[in-house]
Amino acid sequence: MVQGPTPAPPRGGAPAGAAPAATPSAPKPAPGDAVRRPRTDVSTAEVTGAESIVRSLEAAGVETVFGIPGGAILPTYDPLMDSKKIRHILVRHEQGGGHAASGYAHATGRVGVTMATSGPGATNLVTPIADANMDSIPMVAITGQVGASLIGTDAFQEADIVGITFPVTKHSFLVTDPDDIPRTIAEAFHIASTGRPGPVLVDIAKSAMQAKTTFSWPSELNLPGYHPVTKPHSKQIREAARLLASARRPVLYVGGGAIRSGAAAELRKLVDLSGAAAVTTLMARGALPDSHPQNLGMPGMHGTVPAVSALQKADLVFALGARFDDRVTGKLSSFAPHATIIHADIDPAEIGKNRAVDVPIVGDLKEVIADLLPELAREQETHGKPDLEAWWRQIDSWRETYPLGFTEPEDGHLAPQHIISRLGEISGPDSIYVSGVGQHQMWASQFIRYERPNTWLNSGGLGTMGYSIPAAMGAKVGQPDRTVWAIDGDGCFQMTNQELATCSINDIPIKVALINNSSLGMVRQWQTLFYESRYSNTDLHTGHGTRHIPDFVKLADAYGCVGIRVEHANEVDAAIKRAEQINDQPVVIDFHVSRDAMVWPMVAAGVSNDDIQYARGISPAWDRED
């Protein structure tokens, strides 16, 4: 029988691919680690376990919880009602609560919190938890569990959520003893926010919530075996500086770790000092301003030709908080074939996982770059700055020949790229843009100019349709003074649009740009390219002269939002500007766009980046250029 609390091994401390035990057990102390209870303050008070949960969340600094009650978590909702510090936002579905917590965390850098009941309530959290795990989002999920005596009996609404989420959390706890609640929640927040951020689940038995206990918030934590390395090794820093100073075709491959570590300022200094080209992955858009002349944009499947080409032709690739994802590398064996690889990451399990590394650096990216800058300057003083003129001449020729662009649709519908470009230009770089998953996600990453971190939120790793609306809601709660745009597709929108009711009722005025092509657009694009235009089950009938089911303008009205439909190019700017002026309720603009618009450039799945297509049937002739 599972005894609580039962922590699973931290993600960063376990070998990649290690099989989880059927019943997670407490991590064994490392040699020399003292197993001791944390020292507590003296201000203890007798409370119920449920009251202890609320007090613990308050002590952890939580201001907002996105959740929905049910039988097993109900004891906690009663004292939560009396909290003066915590705003609980009642969502319409647990998935929405999880993504909202994720959006809140992404926009603020603070830990997002979601709460749900046992069984189906908890299992509905699996997708946002897995999503946060893939994108390294700090999140704590509190779930109610059936009473401790019922665990393992197939009781009503019982599910082993610790076991279910074990592979997709950074850490998981099952709490059956009310005395363990404060310490467990304190540990959960510490683990979620330190090292490589990630989601932590705390599953608490209903019997523990109802039992009497004393509340005492720990003043120190003791987590045997959990010691994230943030300070990089000086020898590896020196070697990285030597290689970067002597490379002739260097590329900084910047990943989402630059956002999570708050390393934007340090990254800017490194780019300026090194003179290297920089590419920012889907998760790193905004880590380096798009206006910086050395930023080549996004690499990968739908990256820019200059970014993809530079990586392929580089003699040095310096990966900074990136993970050599298959969407970036394409066919891995042909990725950056001539490059020496330096890889800096807070998670040692990422280094060498996909691509062999010449210089591994484990550490927090902010500290890594801070240590690297003086070493690089010393190298340049000793040996002179590298001559990168030929490299930049080559890159500039790619930028001039293969800029991002699009062609106007021939079917009379709007070009989605034009809408998203205008949205970015009108709303500006201080707004937060949150996308769903699919074509609109790629266009939003390509055609909006990102100038600062944490202004671009999306589901990069898991690719979760339905992410946009609830994540935008969470972002707006965390950053109430910023304009928040959800850029969503008509397929994604129909998965979680019920959270617009949450937004209306709770005065969360997000704005939604619905890129409505009446289709599952990215799937349709693949059907066009790889399935001879046989469109099996991708027509959603949400526009283009069909029945408009649903009618998104009427749906917006039903949810208490302002609904606007745009079908002509001359209406685009006016609609966006009108939405910008409405700040007392959510706005949904239903943009009817061409279903035949495609995302270019493109590297087909499993194909070498050498075979990137600039547009359909048009590939760069970079071999001849060489």
From TrEMBL:
<dbReference type="Pfam" id="PF00205">
    <property type="entry name" value="TPP_enzyme_M"/>
</dbReference>
<feature type="domain" description="Thiamine pyrophosphate enzyme N-terminal TPP-binding">
    <location>
        <begin position="48"/>
        <end position="162"/>
    </location>
</feature>
<dbReference type="GO" id="GO:0005948">
    <property type="term" value="C:acetolactate synthase complex"/>
</dbReference>
<dbReference type="InterPro" id="IPR039368">
    <property type="entry name" value="AHAS_TPP"/>
</dbReference>
<dbReference type="GO" id="GO:0003984">
    <property type="term" value="F:acetolactate synthase activity"/>
</dbReference>
<feature type="domain" description="Thiamine pyrophosphate enzyme central">
    <location>
        <begin position="237"/>
        <end position="372"/>
    </location>
</feature>
<dbReference type="InterPro" id="IPR029035">
    <property type="entry name" value="DHS-like_NAD/FAD-binding_dom"/>
</dbReference>
<dbReference type="InterPro" id="IPR000399">
    <property type="entry name" value="TPP-bd_CS"/>
</dbReference>
<keyword id="KW-0786">Thiamine pyrophosphate</keyword>
<comment type="pathway">
    <text>Amino-acid biosynthesis; L-valine biosynthesis; L-valine from pyruvate: step 1/4.</text>
</comment>
<dbReference type="Pfam" id="PF02775">
    <property type="entry name" value="TPP_enzyme_C"/>
</dbReference>
<keyword id="KW-0808">Transferase</keyword>
<keyword id="KW-0285">Flavoprotein</keyword>
<comment type="pathway">
    <text>Amino-acid biosynthesis; L-isoleucine biosynthesis; L-isoleucine from 2-oxobutanoate: step 1/4.</text>
</comment>
<dbReference type="GO" id="GO:0009099">
    <property type="term" value="P:L-valine biosynthetic process"/>
</dbReference>
<dbReference type="GO" id="GO:0009097">
    <property type="term" value="P:isoleucine biosynthetic process"/>
</dbReference>
<keyword id="KW-0479">Metal-binding</keyword>
<dbReference type="InterPro" id="IPR012001">
    <property type="entry name" value="Thiamin_PyroP_enz_TPP-bd_dom"/>
</dbReference>
<keyword id="KW-0028">Amino-acid biosynthesis</keyword>
<feature type="domain" description="Thiamine pyrophosphate enzyme TPP-binding">
    <location>
        <begin position="436"/>
        <end position="591"/>
    </location>
</feature>
<feature type="compositionally biased region" description="Low complexity">
    <location>
        <begin position="13"/>
        <end position="25"/>
    </location>
</feature>
<dbReference type="Pfam" id="PF02776">
    <property type="entry name" value="TPP_enzyme_N"/>
</dbReference>
<protein>
    <recommendedName>
        <fullName>Acetolactate synthase</fullName>
        <ecNumber>2.2.1.6</ecNumber>
    </recommendedName>
</protein>
<dbReference type="InterPro" id="IPR012846">
    <property type="entry name" value="Acetolactate_synth_lsu"/>
</dbReference>
<keyword id="KW-0460">Magnesium</keyword>
<keyword id="KW-0100">Branched-chain amino acid biosynthesis</keyword>
<dbReference type="GO" id="GO:0030976">
    <property type="term" value="F:thiamine pyrophosphate binding"/>
</dbReference>
<feature type="region of interest" description="Disordered">
    <location>
        <begin position="1"/>
        <end position="48"/>
    </location>
</feature>
<keyword id="KW-0274">FAD</keyword>
<dbReference type="GO" id="GO:0050660">
    <property type="term" value="F:flavin adenine dinucleotide binding"/>
</dbReference>
<comment type="similarity">
    <text>Belongs to the TPP enzyme family.</text>
</comment>
<dbReference type="InterPro" id="IPR012000">
    <property type="entry name" value="Thiamin_PyroP_enz_cen_dom"/>
</dbReference>
<dbReference type="InterPro" id="IPR011766">
    <property type="entry name" value="TPP_enzyme_TPP-bd"/>
</dbReference>
<feature type="compositionally biased region" description="Pro residues">
    <location>
        <begin position="1"/>
        <end position="12"/>
    </location>
</feature>
<dbReference type="InterPro" id="IPR045229">
    <property type="entry name" value="TPP_enz"/>
</dbReference>
<dbReference type="InterPro" id="IPR029061">
    <property type="entry name" value="THDP-binding"/>
</dbReference>
<dbReference type="GO" id="GO:0000287">
    <property type="term" value="F:magnesium ion binding"/>
</dbReference>
